[in-house]
Specification:
single chain; alpha+beta; Rossmann fold; five-stranded antiparallel β-sheet; 9 helices; globular
Length: 308
């Protein structure tokens, strides 16, 4: 078995780099032939994952959080947003965010993560193919394993990524959300799912979910299954700040879908655009900010074999 590991030394405010000796010891106890490559900066995990595909690596491990895993997932689509066959993909969790692993009930335990990387047969999961408008106003094609959202989520990402990571995932995202609530104004959008109108009007946030959790543990899409060939689309509609704050605990608990200001549906294709072109709605994609509306999201069924 050929095994390559991509390590983001900056993940978790440097906890990934500090954990490298323990990781090597855990791998060496298995008498494995493996290589570890380190990212040098933003986006580098995508390049290293593409190199792993080109080299015919059978299993690819990612040491980091949701952002590093998202970067690696970019290698599993081509420039047109179509699926690319690649190695089985595993996660060794070190990072500010840990939302994707929560859908599978995975812990941060290092020995358990190494065992999954080596012993798991893998589970085919869906991949989201996303067409957006990037920060330069140009079209861009991205991939996402977990959740893409737009509205306050995009602004929250900007604030979290610019803020202190030592707080930890949940605290960092909660602080970012509070700050975003103070600045965000609900943006009028149109959203269609599988060609049928779903939303037309102001929104606080809309999540296009493959996994169940985002924002440092918010259970935004409690019914989502990452291998059912469908997105769960959850809209927090034209909520006031007070209502949004009051709903926060229900979102963490996953009991918000029955609230009158929340709408949800399922589908394979999501298209969204701002009603007014000058009102930008920023996009959150697995903790990153790839751009703004308009967007088109498509499901690529079973495109990644995840070592869960």
């Amino acid at each position: 078995m050929s095994l390559r590991i991509i390590l983001n030394p900056r993940a978790g405010s440097g906890s990934a780099a500090r954990g490298l000796p323990r990781l090597k010891a855990a791998l060496d106890r298995r008498s494995l032939d493996y290589t570890i490559v380190e990212t040098q900066g933003p986006g580098d995990a995508s390049r290293l994952a593409r190199e792993a595909i080109a080299d015919g690596v059978e299993r690819l491990g990612v040491v980091g959080g949701d952002g590093t895993l998202n970067e690696a997932s970019q290698a599993y689509i081509d420039s047109q947003g179509e699926a690319v066959e690649g190695p089985k993909l595993g996660l060794i969790p070190f990072g500010t965010g840990g939302d994707f692993r929560k859908t599978f009930g995975l812990t941060r335990d290092l020995e358990a993560a190494v065992a999954r990387l080596i012993d798991s047969p893998g589970r085919p999961v869906d991949l989201g193919s996303l067409s957006v408008t990037n920060a330069d106003g140009e079209p861009s094609v991205e991939a996402f394993l977990n959740i893409t959202s737009f509205g306050i989520g995009g602004l929250t990402d900007q604030l979290v990524n610019a803020g202190p990571k030592w707080l930890g995932g949940k605290a960092a995202f909660l602080l970012g959300t509070v700050r975003a609530l103070a600045a965000y104004r609900n943006v009028p959008v149109t959203v269609a799912v599988d060609g049928k109108p779903f939303i037309e009007g102001p929104i606080l946030n809309v999540a296009i979910a493959n996994g169940q959790f985002f924002g440092g543990g918010m259970h935004i899409a409690p019914d989502a299954e990452p291998d059912d060939g469908l997105f769960d689309v959850v809209a927090l509609c034209d909520l006031t700040r007070a209502t949004a704050v009051g709903l926060t605990q229900r979102i963490y608990a996953g009991t918000h879908l029955t609230h009158g200001g929340v709408r949800h549906t399922r589908g394979k294709l999501v298209e969204a655009a701002p009603v007014f072109p000058f009102r930008h709605a920023l996009i959150d994609m697995d903790g990153e900010t790839p751009g703004r509306l308009p967007l088109t999201a498509r499901v690529l069924p079973g495109a990644v074999v995840f070592l869960a």
